[in-house]
């Protein structure tokens, strides 16, 4: 099986890909999330794995934008990964002597408290894994990455678990080409993701949400997102329990059409067990 990810060996997308599919997979490393979607569209890979939101910093803007814009894909699974950031370097050095620290923009954002106490210049790099080639040439440079980078490339750990909160987790979507046939047991718990734009009338969103409530469908996510079409116009990303093949979900989707001018079904997929709570993680650590 060939899986496209944004990033390289050692990135968090690589970690979740191997956890979901095992070591026998072939990883297609992409320079951007757009490239992942392109390879799904052109059937160059079997699946793609993209981060969608982080427990600390919220949605991953670029991937949400692509969910809105791209059409040749569907979500077939979700997964959660506990994110622990490590400060890695070629050799052991006092962290106050570091000149530069490299990291993915998301990684830098998730480690603000730790980084604020260091004089080193912080450099945003599109892929923390690829920053290894730079850091490996200079003892005064370091990068923020997963512990997998330490395991794979024998980098020294200067500090571990440097994220702002210990309960840091990222949610990922597994996507496939929309033409692929997927068999899902609708009797098991499933989740569906959709994007909607409501009519410009008073109470339109309220009426949409009321239809879900009246049919006892549990919403697990509701988020407003700029439409990128008109100033101060928003669309909504919804996750709810249920599968589009079920009669009750089909009935709800039909009814909300009366209060929306746009509905995009991103996919139905098995409902992943919710990650551990903050308290459970604190106890474990």
SSE layout and pairing:
Blueprint: E1 2-6, H1 12-21, E2 26-30, H2 33-41, E3 47-54, E4 58-59, H3 61-69, E5 73-82, E6 86-89, E7 100-103, H4 105-110, H5 112-115, E8 121-124, H6 132-135, E9 141-145, H7 147-153, E10 156-159, E11 169-177, E12 190-198, H8 204-214, E13 219-226, E14 234-241, H9 247-256, E15 260-270, H10 278-284
Parallel strand pairs: 1-2, 1-3, 7-8, 7-9
Antiparallel strand pairs: 3-4, 3-11, 5-11, 6-9, 6-10, 12-14, 12-15, 13-14
Structural features, described:
- With 285 residues, the protein is α/β, with parallel strands linked by helices.
- It folds into 3 domains: 2-83 and 168-177, D-Maltodextrin-Binding Protein, domain 2; 86-154, 3-Layer(aba) Sandwich (D-Maltodextrin-Binding Protein, domain 2), CATH 3.40.190.10; 190-270, ACT domain (Alpha-Beta Plaits).
- The protein has 10 helices and 15 strands.
- It has helices at 12-21, 33-41, 61-69, 105-110, 112-115, 132-135, 147-153, 204-214, 247-256, 278-284, and strands at residues 2-6, 26-30, 47-54, 58-59, 73-82, 86-89, 100-103, 121-124, 141-145, 156-159, 169-177, 190-198, 219-226, 234-241, 260-270.
- Strands 1, 2, 3, 4, 5 and 11 form a 6-stranded mixed sheet that branches.
């Amino acid at each position: 099986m060939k899986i496209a990810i944004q990033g390289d060996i050692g990135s968090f997308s690589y970690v979740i890909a191997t956890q979901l599919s095992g070591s026998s997979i072939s990883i297609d490393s992409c320079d951007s999330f757009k490239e992942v979607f392109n390879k799904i569209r052109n059937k160059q890979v079997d699946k793609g794995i993209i981060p969608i939101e982080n427990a600390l910093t919220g949605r991953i803007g670029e991937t949400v934008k692509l969910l809105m814009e791209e059409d040749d894909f569907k979500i077939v699974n979700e997964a959660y990964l506990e994110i622990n950031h490590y400060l890695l370097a070629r050799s052991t050095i006092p962290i106050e002597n570091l000149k530069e620290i490299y990291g993915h923009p998301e990684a830098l954002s998730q480690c603000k408290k730790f980084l604020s106490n260091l004089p080193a210049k912080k450099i945003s790099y599109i892929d923390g894994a690829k920053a290894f080639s730079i850091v490996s040439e200079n003892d005064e440079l370091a990068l923020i990455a997963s512990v997998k980078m330490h395991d794979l490339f024998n980098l020294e750990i200067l500090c571990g678990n440097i994220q702002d909160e210990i309960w840091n987790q990222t949610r990922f979507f597994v996507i496939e080409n929309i033409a692929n046939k997927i068999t899902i047991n609708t009797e098991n718990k499933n989740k569906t993701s959709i994007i909607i734009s409501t009519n410009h009338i008073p109470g339109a969103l309220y009426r949409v949400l009321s239809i879900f409530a009246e049919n006892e469908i549990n919403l697990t996510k509701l988020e407003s997102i700029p439409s990128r079409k008109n100033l101060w116009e928003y669309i909504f990303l919804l996750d709810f329990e249920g599968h589009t093949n079920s009669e009750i979900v089909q009935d709800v989707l039909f009814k909300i059409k009366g209060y929306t001018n746009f509905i995009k079904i991103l996919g139905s997929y098995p409902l992943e067990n919710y990650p551990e709570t903050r308290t459970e993680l604190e106890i474990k650590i």
